[in-house]
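User: We ran a pulldown and think these components assemble together. Before we commit to crystallization trials, I'd like a predicted model of the whole complex to look at. Sequences follow.
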Amino acid sequence: MTTMTDEILLSVRGLHTWYELKKWGFFHAGYVRAVDGVSFDLRRGEALTVVGESGSGKTSLLKTILGLAPITKGQIIFAGQQLDGRGKSLAWLRSQVGFVQQDPYGALPPFMNVRKILLEPMLINKFGTPAEREQRIREVLEEVRLVPVSDFLTKFPHMLSGGQQQRLVIARALVLRPSLIVADEPVSMLDASVRVEILELMRRIQKAHQLGVIYITHDLSTVRYFSERVFIMYAAKVVEKADVREIIHNTLHPYTKALLAAIPDPDPENANRYRDVPPGEPPSLVKPPSGCRFHPRCPVRIEGLCEKEEPPAFEPFRDHQVECWLYRT
Amino acid sequence: MKGLWARFREIRRYPSAIVGLSLIAVLAVVSIYTVIKIPYPEAVRLWRGTGDVWGDNPRNAWPVWINLLPGINRPTTIVRQSGPSGTKRVFPNGDVDITFQFDYPYDGFPKELNIFFTAAYTKLVPYVTVTWVYPDGREVLLRQGGVKTEQYTVAADKALQARLGGLSPEIGLFAQPGSKDRPQSQKGKYQLHINGILFEPESDLDAKLVIYGQVHGLAGTDSQRRDLTLALLWGTPIALVFGLVAAVGISMSQFLFGAVSAYYGGKTDTTVQFITRVKMVLPTLPIYMMIAMFYSRSVWVILGAVIILNLIGGGVLTYRSMFLQAKESPYIDAARAYGASNRRIVLRYLVPRVLPVLIPGFVTAIPAYVFLEASLAFLGLGDPSLPTWGKMLNESGIAALLQGHYYWVVQPAILLMITGFSFALVGFALDRIFNPRLRTL
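Assistant: Here's a predicted model for the assembly, 770 residues in total across the polymer chains.
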C-alpha cells in the first residue's frame, strides 16, 4: 500500500480472552475461551480482515482490543503503549479507536438525533470548542456522504435507511479523528445493494486518513473489496494468515478451503452441483477439542496426530502462515 | 423515536385519550374547587355533624336530578322561616301573625313535616293557633296552645291524624279530599298561619317550617341527614391525591431498585430479586388491616403504609428486565467504546430507554391505588373523620340497597369507575405511543 508505513500501530501478543462461567451466580463452572492465544501486528494505515464463522471469537477479539472485554492473558500494545484495561490508558485508547458495529440500528441510540449522536463522543472526550465540534459534525457527515448535512442533523435513526444508518455509525467512529477503526461485520446486516457502497466508503476513508482498520466478517466474498491481509479464525484461534490474493489462490488450511467453497457464485449450473461443506458444527469453546480444533470436521486429518497435538504456526510460503499439521516442515 | 415531550403531544391523535384526559381534568377541577371552597377542617366538622348542621335535611332522600327523569316529580325540601321579609306581622298590642306561603307542584308526599318555634318570654309562654290552608281553601287546625322554644313534629301528632281522618299528617295535609285509600297530592299554593298571642311586652315568637322532601341536594342524603354532595366532592381530591402519591412513590422506588439490581448485578441483584420475590408472595391486605385496626385509620397513615410496603414489588422485576435488555444494546457498547462513564450511560442511555415503559405503567397504576383506598374504606378501615367514596360505600352497605337507596351506592361507585376508566384510557394510549410494537401486534 502506498500510504502504509512501517510504524506498528497495534501489537497483539498471545492474547487470551476467557469469560468465567458461574453456577447459580456464585460457583465457578469453567471458562468460555473466546480468544485463545492470538498474536499479530498491525501497521499504521494497514487494513486487516479477520474471517470466521459465528462463535469463532472474532467479536471477542475486537471487544478486547476496544477494552470492552477483559484481557485474561497476553498483551495489547497500542502506539507503543501497553494497555492494562484501566484508567487513563483506556480513556486515551478510546479516543484513538473508532468502533463500527454490525447492526446499525441497534448501534445508534434511538432517542438521540444525528447531531446529538455525533456530539456525544466529542463531549465525553472534551474535543475542541463548541464551534469546532459543530464544524467537525459537518465535516464528518460530508465525509460519509450524508449530504446535504442540514437535512440530516435533526433526524432520528429510525428515519434513516439501513445504509444511511451505517454511514452515521461510520461517521461516529471517525468523529474523534482516530488512528484505528475496528469494524465488526459492518455490512452483514445491509442489503447487498449497499454493501459494496459502504465497503468502498470505508476503503476510501481508510486511505485518505491512513487509518489502521481491523475488519471482521464471516463473509469471504467481501474481503476482496477491502484489505491486504486476511486472518482466518476458527474456534478462538487464528488458523491461517496471508495476503488476500495468496489466501484465495493458494488456500492451505482445510477450513479455509471449506469457507471459500461456501461463497455463493451466481452461476445457474450451481443448482445441480453439490458443494463439499465440512460436516458438524463449530466446537464448544468451553471444552474445545484436543489437538487441532478442526480435526473432528477435517476431511484430510492425519489420524494419531491431529487429535493429539495442537499444530504450531508453519510458514510454508513467504508471509503465509498456517496452523495445520499437513504443512509441517 | 422522538423526544419525550413530542411523544406526549402525540396523545392528541387518540380520541379515547382525549376523553380520558378531559375526565381527569374535570376531576382535578372539582378537587381544586372542593379544597378551596370547603377547607379540610370545615369538611371534617360538617361530616361529623357537630351541632345541628344537617337539621333541615331529610333522611335518605334521593338526589334532585331524579326529577329530570320522565314521570318522576318528587317533592323537594321546602324551608320557610319567619323574619322581616314580610312573613311576620307584629300588631301594636304585641301579638304576632306569621304566614308561610309555598307552592307544592309535586306528586307524592313529603317525608316529614316540622315546625320549629323560637319563643322569647320570661314567665308566660306565647299562645299560638296554627292553621293549615289547602290550595282549595279548606282549613285545618294543626295545634292550639302555649309554645316554648321547641320542635313541633307535625307528622307525629296523633290528635291531628285523627282530625285528618286517620291519614298520617304529612300525607293528610297534602292529600286531595276523598282520596283516602289511595291518597293523591293536591297541587297548588298552601298556606300556614301561625297566630301568636304574647302576654309580655318583651316576648317574641318566631317559627320555621321545614317540609322534608323526598329528594334533596345534588347527591341526596344519608340516614344521618348528611348531604352526600360533600362526601362525593371531598372524595375526589382524596382519591386523586392518594392514587397519584402512591403511584409516584411506588413507581419511582421500584424503578430505582430495578435499575440498581440490573446495573450492579451479582450479589446486589440476587438480594434485590430475593426480597422482591418474598414480598410478592406476602399478602399485603391483612397487613393494611392490622395497621388500620391497631395503629391508625387515618387515610394518610394508610397511604404511607401502602407506599412503604410497595417500595419493592413486581415492578422491580419488570424494570430490571428492561434495564438488562437496554444494557446489552449495541449502542451501550458503542458508548463505552467512546468512553462514556457509568453515570452517563445510566442517565443518558439507559433511563431514556426505560422511561417509556415506566410512564404508561405509572398512569395505569394510579386507579389501582384509588381502588385500594376504596376497598380498605369499604372494609371498614376508612378514615374516621373524612368522607371518601369508599367510606360512602361502607356506610351505605347492603342495607341501603335492600331499602332501595340505590343512589347512595351507585354514585360513589360511578365516580370510582370514571376515575379508573379515565386513567386507563390515557394509560392505554400512552402505552401505544411509547411501545410502538403494540401498534403492529
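The mean pLDDT of chain B is 86. That may be worth checking against your pulldown data before setting up trials.

User: Thanks, that helps.
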